[in-house]
Design brief:
The protein is α+β, with helices and mostly antiparallel strands. The chain has helices at 7-12, 57-77, 125-134, and strands spanning 20-23, 27-31, 41-45, 82-86, 102-107. It has one domain: HIT family, subunit A. The structure holds zinc ion (ZN).
Length: 137
């Protein structure tokens, strides 16, 4: 996708209005218009990168400083019990907007939103060894 057509690039260029939580020279944070919970915030780099594999390390570092700053603020100001940091890459993982972004999702005890389910079946030693052999740099 070209950045001219990207909804998050349009938000960065103020061609689409958004509720901006924070902004600096490299990053923009705004409220998700389909919030999972109150205060659900999206943090993006102003430059267009599709996935985690595309964003340069230095920009990723700067972006996660913003994620930390906003998550801490939300935790205190919205008096949440916790928060999830969620970052989807590629369609199979649920990425809808093809502009790298990080979700900050405020959570309350027993809010019934979502949980990562831990499988009941433990992997075998052989399974772990087989997959580990393939995971080489
Ligand atoms: Zn974009």
């Amino acid at each position: 996708m070209k950045s001219e057509d990207c909804i998050f690039c349009k938000i960065t260029r103020r061609e689409i209005p958004s509720k901006i939580v924070y902004e600096n020279n490299l990053n923009l944070a705004f409220l998700d218009i389909f919030p999972i919970s109150k205060g659900h915030t999206i943090v993006i780099p102003k430059n267009h990168y599709s996935t985690l594999e595309d964003i340069p390390d230095n920009e990723l570092t700067e972006l996660y400083k913003v994620v930390k700053k906003i998550a801490s603020m939300i935790h205190e100001k919205l008096q949440t019990d916790g928060y999830n940091i969620l970052q989807n890459n590629f369609t199979a993982a649920g990425q809808v907007v093809k502009h790298f972004h990080v979700h900050i999702i405020p959570r309350k005890f027993d809010d019934d939103k979502f949980r990562v389910k831990i499988p009941r079946n433990q992997a075998t030693e052989a399974d772990l060894n087989n997959v580990l052999k393939k995971m080489e740099f």
